[in-house]
Amino acid sequence: MDLQQLRSFAAVAHHAHFTRAAEELHIGQPAVSQHVRRLETELGVELLARTSRSVEITQAGEIMLARIERALGELDAGVGELEELRGLRRGRLTIGAMQSLLPFDLSRALATFRAAYPGVDIRLVEGSGRELYEAIATDRIDVAFAPVDGNLPDTFESHQLFAERLVAIVSPSSPLAERSGVDVADLRDEPFVFVQGGTGLRTAVERAAQQAGYRPRVSLETHEVLRAIALVEAGLGVSVVSPTVAGQAGDRVAVLTLRPALERRVALLWRGDRRPSPAAAAFRDQIRDQPALPDKT
Prior knowledge:
Elements: H1 3-15, H2 18-25, H3 29-43, E1 48-50, E2 55-57, H4 59-85, E3 91-97, H5 106-116, E4 120-126, H6 129-137, E5 143-147, E6 156-165, E7 167-170, E8 181-183, E9 191-195, H7 200-211, E10 217-222, H8 225-233, E11 239-241, H9 243-249, E12 254-259, E13 263-271, H10 278-289
Parallel strand pairs: 3-4, 3-5, 8-12, 9-10
Antiparallel strand pairs: 1-2, 5-13, 6-13, 7-11, 7-12
Helix pairs in contact: 1-2, 1-3, 1-4, 2-3
């Protein structure tokens, strides 16, 4: 077996999809299929159960995946240490990011890092808070810009970027639009528009609603913040967003303060029980050295 086979299998197992695995690895889908087939032949077991519509990992695959991911993590760490000796002329950095990071300017942060280390290959992966936590825990990404909701896993470390108080947005035609603020309890009968499952923001809303004695009635879900704004504007539900997102909506929606106050905290996260690659360490240092954004809570 070789490294290409191991990386291809790990990518397919993670995505449950050959094409998406190929996109991650920057190789053709037929090559990924061939790598996995050869690995299965050498091991003498079926690692993936394939149908015309899905790919599922087998019990044997789960056993091998855990060990393969550890092995690849150790190998990448070793390569990273060698790159450190070369002064970061080369290297790889995989960054996870939630969709809405404003007021933090991720593009500027990446441009600054690229200017300092032009030889480092930067890869950006977007996902929900839950997905980013899992990706850090399994060493698929080096660092993540993610919401911090309650206690972090024991193996995680963090550097807080900002905290801000959340607001509710409603259609200008809604009776609630006449108010300046609203109690979470008063939203009991309102349909909610949520942005992507598994986010810290949604968790905060669900927790507050539970304390008020109800579960939010989810009307629509979307992966795009701008679409959520459009859905609210059209009168299809209420949503809870950051002040920055509400500001982007302008007068398309009415903005209400929430009682009790809800907030979201966003941080740079990484595994504290792993030695970081030189590129990851340099990026973390850059972010930590930036002036702190003011809290808006």
